[in-house]
């Protein structure tokens, strides 16, 4: 078993819907904040599906052809991880027709859409939990949750199981067949609406038998549907063919940012870590890994790099060169800053004068290189270090094409061409992107903090 083939060519764009674009002010909730104000855990800015639909061309312009949306169902909070009804679009985002218009417009542009499967917990406003509060032991839903006694109380300590002790997030009893049937019906319903996959929220809090059933439901509706698990440490347990097609690759993120942002990881440690990580991911699943540098659960990429755009671009250069599908978190491509939640959930700036065009242009160049070069998308990965500050990510395609991404964080370096992986006779190197130059001594010269992608050519393929 392996991940759907389209993942090898995918570049994802993650959207936190409430903060991306306000396209229909008539949906704004009372007390909506002005766009661009400071984000908090409680405030609303009016992002909606009309806004996302109107800005799809921007997403295409950065090279993305897949979208991952954080929760979109009826809820009380701005993050919507507290669902009240999984079958209803949140009224502040629009209605089912607005969602369908978005989905149709995305698909017309060749963009696939993945939704967030939040099945470990719901919100305390969910209709089933409200019924338990009202009817107590007599509720037909009392065993959908794990309630210790009555009346149901949330303070000072909830007398029911929750997600991480958060009183407004009661935990589902996933051992209950009725709960499983409800969740599987949710999965079927939105696939029938036309979505292309599910991202599993905190799946490690639910037993594997539930997720095996979930996979059976999803894959029974289409083998091309993508299932990606949130995972912060150990990917392999999800990649045995019975659970997920990939995981969110936070381990790769930690390695890359340790090298480009913190200086806590040198090239040798980065290489060792990337090679060990690759060995842990079973054959057939590497293209399904969702590679990221930032998300709604981390500080912003530029913030992590202390505002250093060139350092951030070095991180993105490694991300786009690695096996797996790269993912951009909305706003990171234009230099949006912010610390972890709630700072990382600010509104997308649409005034282009506020953008880092150096960062945006760099990311667009990386996306173009990846789109134009099959070896960058589908080639097998090898990683090596030239010195403590220089990493070579090598991708070899089945047709013999080779791409080498050289990411250097020091004051400048010269790399002998002979240090690059051996070539097929009759092939030579050319610069795919970056500012490297070949000198007469047979070396590649990189400026301070330089990045370059090199690819092979023959006389027949030389541009």
From TrEMBL:
Annotated ranges, domain Glycosyl hydrolase family 13 catalytic = 14-370
Question: InterPro entries, per this entry?
Answer: GH, GH13_cat_dom, O16G_dom_2
Which keywords belong to this entry?
A: Glycosidase, Hydrolase
| SMART domains per the UniProt record, alphabetical | Aamy
- Tell me the Gene3D superfamilies matching this sequence: Glycosidases (3.20.20.80), Oligo-1,6-glucosidase, Domain 2 (3.90.400.10)
**What is the recorded name of this protein?**
Neopullulanase
Q: Organism, per UniProt?
A: Microbacterium suwonense
């Amino acid at each position: 078993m392996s991940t759907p083939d389209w993942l090898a060519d995918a570049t994802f764009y993650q959207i936190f819907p409430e903060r991306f674009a306000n396209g229909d002010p008539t949906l704004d909730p009372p007390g909506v904040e002005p766009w661009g104000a400071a984000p908090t855990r409680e405030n609303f800015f009016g992002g909606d599906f009309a806004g996302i639909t109107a800005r799809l061309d921007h997403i295409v312009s950065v090279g993305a052809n897949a979208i991952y949306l954080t929760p979109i169902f009826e809820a009380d909070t701005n993050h919507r991880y507290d669902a009240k009804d999984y079958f209803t679009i949140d009224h502040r985002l629009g209605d089912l027709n607005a969602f369908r218009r978005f989905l149709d417009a995305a698909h017309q542009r060749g963009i696939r859409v993945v939704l967030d499967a939040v099945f470990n917990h719901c919100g305390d406003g969910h209709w089933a939990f409200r019924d338990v509060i009202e009817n107590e032991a007599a509720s037909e839903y009392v065993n959908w949750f794990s309630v210790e006694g009555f009346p149901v109380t949330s303070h000072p300590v909830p007398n029911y199981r929750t997600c991480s002790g958060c009183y407004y997030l009661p935990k589902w009893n996933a051992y209950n067949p009725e709960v499983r049937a409800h969740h599987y019906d949710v999965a079927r319903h939105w696939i029938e609406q036309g979505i292309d996959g599910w991202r599993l929220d905190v799946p490690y809090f639910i037993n594997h038998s539930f997720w095996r059933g979930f996979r059976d439901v999803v894959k029974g509706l289409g083998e091309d549907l993508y299932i990606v698990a949130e995972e912060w440490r150990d990917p392999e347990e999800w990649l045995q063919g019975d659970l997920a097609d990939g995981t969110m690759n936070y381990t790769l993120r930690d390695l890359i940012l340790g090298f480009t942002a913190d200086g806590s990881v040198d090239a040798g440690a980065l290489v060792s870590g990337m090679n060990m990580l690759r060995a842990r991911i079973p054959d057939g699943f590497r293209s399904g890994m969702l590679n990221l540098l930032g998300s709604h659960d981390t500080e912003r990429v530029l913030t992590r790099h202390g505002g250093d755009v060139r350092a951030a671009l070095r991180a993105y250069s490694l991300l786009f060169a690695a096996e797996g599908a790269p993912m951009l978190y909305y706003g990171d491509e234009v230099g949006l800053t912010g610390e972890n939640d709630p700072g990382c959930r600010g509104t997308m700036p649409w005034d282009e004068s506020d953008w880092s065009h150096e960062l945006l242009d760099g990311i667009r160049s990386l996306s173009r290189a990846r789109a134009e070069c099959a070896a960058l998308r589908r080639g097998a990965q090898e990683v090596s270090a030239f010195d403590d500050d220089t990493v070579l990510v090598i991708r070899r395609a089945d047709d013999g094409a080779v791409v080498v991404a050289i990411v250097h964080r020091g004051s400048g370096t010269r790399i002998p061409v002979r240090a690059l992986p051996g070539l097929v006779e009759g092939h030579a190197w050319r610069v795919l992107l970056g500012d490297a130059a070949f000198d007469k001594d047979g070396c590649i010269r990189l400026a301070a903090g330089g990045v370059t992608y090199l690819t092979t050519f023959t006389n027949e393929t030389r541009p």
